[in-house]
Structures are given as structure tokens and as C-alpha cells.
Design brief:
With about 130 residues, the chain is α+β, with helices and mostly antiparallel strands. About 40% of the residues lie in helices and about 20% in strands. The chain contains four helices and four strands; from the N terminus they run E-E-E-H-H-H-E-H. The protein is elongated, with a radius of gyration of 25 Å.
């Protein structure tokens, strides 16, 4: 990460040793003038489930695709196909704004083996620190 310090009023960089990976983290604290802090994050998502996927399949099968097949120009055919597909896709999977909880973490990918390895690495690191 590169910072243009001329645009920052007040900041500090603090190294963080977490013992979870080979690399240490850096915490960048930027002090701003605003005191407004959101209590929760808003995020835009598309909902994918068996019902919305079935809706997409049904709409695609019912589309006539006239604009694609009635054109002589390959670019017009491609643009028509893309426009028709995106129109159907966006109607089947509309963008929704959802509130994300602060404590929500997405760490489902961390397996039991990874957790055990991180704990062992952390313990070895702490033992090393005690010896110095």
C-alpha cells in the first residue's frame, strides 16, 4: 500500500504480529475530522438460489432471440445477445442492498488443519519471544 502523506492530516502506522501467517500486518490509523461512524455496513449483493436460477432458466427459454438471429452483422448479433441476456440476468438476480453485521466474518474456508497449524505457529512464536 502506498500513501500520499501530503493528503493526510494525522496518521500512524503500527506493526501487528498476529502469529497467524508468515507476514506481519500493518495497522494504518487515519484520524479524520468527521465524527460520524456508521453502525453497520451496507452492501449490494445479488441473491442466487434455486428459485432465482430457475427463474433465469425459464426466462432464457422463453426469449425469442429475434434480434440475434434476424441480423446480418456479427457485431449487432453479439450486442443483441449480450443485451438480451443481461436484461434477463438483471431481472432474475436484482441488486439488493443488505446490512452486514459488524461481527459477521467469512472464514468458512479456514479448515481445522489450518487452525491447528496457526495455533502451533503462534505458540512457537510466543516461545521464541519468551527466550529473548
Amino acid at each position: 500500500m502506498f500513501l500520499d502523506k501530503s493528503r493526510l492530516e494525522d496518521h500512524t502506522v503500527i506493526p501487528i504480529t498476529n502469529g497467524l501467517s508468515d507476514h506481519d500486518a500493518q495497522l494504518l490509523k487515519i484520524n479524520t475530522k468527521t465524527s460520524h461512524r456508521p453502525t453497520s455496513k451496507l452492501r449490494t449483493v445479488r441473491k442466487f438460489n434455486k428459485y432465482t436460477i430457475t427463474d433465469l432458466i425459464n426466462k432464457l427459454s422463453e426469449e425469442s432471440w429475434d434480434g440475434v438471429f434476424n441480423s446480418e452483422d456479427i457485431n449487432d448479433m453479439c450486442n443483441s445477445l449480450l443485451n438480451d441476456y443481461l436484461r434477463i440476468f438483471h431481472s432474475s438476480f436484482p441488486i439488493q442492498t443488505v446490512t452486514v453485521r459488524k461481527d459477521a466474518t467469512n472464514n468458512n474456508w479456514i479448515t481445522k488443519g489450518i487452525k491447528m497449524s496457526c495455533m502451533k505457529k503462534r505458540n512457537l512464536y510466543l516461545q521464541r519471544c519468551e527466550n529473548y
